[in-house]
Amino acid sequence: MAASILRLFFHDCFVNVRTLGCDASILLDDTATLTGEKNAGPNRNSARGFQVIDTIKTRVDAACNATVSCADILALAARDGVVLLGGQTWTVPLGRRDARTASQSAANSQIPGPSSSLATLVNMFSNKGLSARDMTVLSGAHTIGQARCTTFRQRIYNDTNINAAFATTRRRNCPSTGGDGNLAPIDSTPARFDNSYYRDLVARRGLFHSDQELFNGGSQDAAVTGYSNNGASFLRDFAAAMVRLGNLSPLTGRNGEVRRNCRRIN
């Protein structure tokens, strides 16, 4: 579940509702009075791992009741999943509080999509106080996990900056119509946190249009080439960028709450 938990953390941190950042708003279920983020376009039928966070929360509260927030648990779980698959560890600053609200509209508008251009990606990360280099290294999270056909269909049928053999292979399990939920690995080593993602981009084997935008004659070509040649520098820079992502103005002090159940406000 490492890739799914990492994605949950990113989608949590990137949604700005009155506060900015990692506040476990993505974990809230819809209720009669609250429309959560789980059914926003970027999350519907793809965000998963909620039951893993539930299990961790139950065990943590059994040892230390009503003290550790769901937001901190998600931040820690994202880090630990990366480490278990071969990534470098980092120290997760703690003390986040959980949001009492969520925003489906913000989730729809603020999370970059798989068809994004390089300019859009740079701008969306800049809006969060993250640099273009941060964007390129955090995109390396795509070195693990699987993606649904619907997210890369346009890439393999319409893009021209794609390795022909790679496109042919991906089309076998992703028809031009139907099969939206069919899965494909995002890079060539989807269960290992390494720099294969960047090597694939250099070989024009990026699965998403937005991924290949990082290596397509633009401003991030040099960074992609560097990470493709030096896996250690990618792991080091990714760890540092994850700290910056996790520090996006979280709720602290008396703001928010420590939820008893990660799926609903107290």
Give a brief outline of the structure.
The chain has twelve helices and four strands. It is mainly α.
Notable characteristics:
266 residues; lactoperoxidase activity; iron; two-stranded antiparallel ribbon; mainly alpha; 4 strands; oxidoreductase; 44% helix
Describe this protein's structure.
This protein has helices at 2-13, 50-63, 70-84, 104-110, 118-126, 132-138, 149-158, 164-171, 196-202, 209-212, 221-229, 231-246; strands at residues 16-17, 19-20, 146-148, 183-185. By secondary structure, it is mainly α. The strands form two sheets. Strands 1-2 form a two-stranded antiparallel ribbon. Strands 3-4 form a two-stranded antiparallel ribbon. A hairpin with a 1-residue loop joins β1 and β2. α7 (149-158) packs across α8 (164-171) and α11 (221-229) crosses α12. 42% of the residues are buried. The model has no long low-confidence stretch (mean pLDDT 96). Belongs to the peroxidase family. Ascorbate peroxidase subfamily. Residues 1-266 form the Plant heme peroxidase family profile domain.
Q: Based on helices, strands and strand pairing, what is the structural class?
A: mainly alpha
The low-confidence parts are none
First-residue to last-residue Cα separation: 27 Å
Looking across the biggest beta sheet, what order are the strands in? Answer: 1-2
H-E order: HEEHHHHHEHHEHHHH
Mean pLDDT comes to 96
* Percentage of residues assigned to helices: 40-55%
Oligomeric category: single chain
Rg from Cα:
18 Å
| Beta-strand segment tally | 4
Please state roughly what percent of the residues sit in beta strands, choosing from under 5%, 5-15%, 15-25%, 25-35%, 35-45% or over 45%: under 5%
Shape: globular
The DSSP helix count reads: 12
Largest sheet: 2 strands, antiparallel
